């Protein structure tokens, strides 16, 4: 589980990403759009850039593993770890 708290709701993140993607052409570069919008919502430009990259991976416009698949893999790894521990306990008990 993450040790950091999410200061921004999912709606704020989605809106900020949408603003960057929609207003990118009005700025000299994507980074300028990110800096401008991040200052308005109160997050760092690096954070907003990460949100934009993750959104692009999730919608398929950038290569990578989508969040849905990552979450599913984490859940399966957790279940696998728990099953291994249960098997170890049963092995020791018998």
Helix content: over 70%
Question: Into how many domains do the coordinates divide?
Answer: 2
Task: Specify Rg, calculated over alpha carbons.
Answer: 19 Å
Provide mean pLDDT, rounded: 90
> What's the assembly state of these chains?
single chain
* CATH C-level name of the largest domain: Mainly Alpha
Query: How many helices does DSSP assign?
Result: 4
First and last CA, distance: 33 Å
Strand content: under 5%
Helix and strand composition category: mainly alpha
Please state the second-level CATH architecture of the largest domain: Orthogonal Bundle
Count of DSSP strands: 0
In short:
Helices cover 72% and strands 0% of the residues. It has helices at residues 10-23, 30-41, 45-59, 67-93.
Which properties best describe this structure?
0% strand, 4 helices, 94 residues, elongated, single chain, mainly alpha, Arc Repressor Mutant, subunit A
Structure description:
The protein is mainly α. The chain has 2 domains: 8-63, Arc Repressor Mutant, subunit A (Orthogonal Bundle); 65-94. It has 4 helices and no strands. Helix 1 (10-23) crosses helix 3. The two termini are 33 Å apart.
List the topology elements.
Layout: H1 10-23, H2 30-41, H3 45-59, H4 67-93
Helix pairs in contact: 1-2, 1-3, 2-3
């Amino acid at each position: 589980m993450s040790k950091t708290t999410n200061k921004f709701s999912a709606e704020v993140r989605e809106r900020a990403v949408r603003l960057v993607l929609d207003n990118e052409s009005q700025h000299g570069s994507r980074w300028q759009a990110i800096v401008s919008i991040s200052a308005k919502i109160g997050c760092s430009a690096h954070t907003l850039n990460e949100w934009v990259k993750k959104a692009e991976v999730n919608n398929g416009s950038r290569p990578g593993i989508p969040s849905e698949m990552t979450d599913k893999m984490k859940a399966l790894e957790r279940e696998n770890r728990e099953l291994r521990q249960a098997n170890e306990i049963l092995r020791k008990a018998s």
